[in-house]
Specification:
Elements: H1 2-5, H2 8-25, H3 32-59, H4 74-85
Helix pairs in contact: 2-3, 3-4
Length: 86
């Protein structure tokens, strides 16, 4: 499970969120740029979580959507998971 939690997508989303939280603490005004930054952060977090879910599904032998970054690598991920479990 830690391989998913410490992936680059999640780490970059967390550090981006920390930066946005720091800007709120500095009493900066909430502008449209700030709103876009928060929306972008939310999208990045959702994509990182989606990649984790797709990787986990593929490793367990389930199918993943064609637009997933792990599509076509299902067999490789499943073999890797089975090798770790032995």
């Amino acid at each position: 499970m830690r391989q998913y939690l410490f992936g680059t997508g999640i780490l970059s989303a967390v550090t981006g969120g920390m930066t946005l939280l720091r800007s709120i603490r500095n009493d900066e005004p909430f502008t449209w740029r700030t709103a876009l930054a928060w929306a972008s952060w939310g999208i990045s977090l959702a994509l990182a979580i989606g990649a984790i879910v797709d990787t986990r599904r593929a490793a367990r032998g389930h199918t993943v959507p064609q637009d997933s970054p792990v599509h076509g690598k299902e067999e490789k991920l499943m073999k890797k998971r089975l090798a770790r479990s032995h």
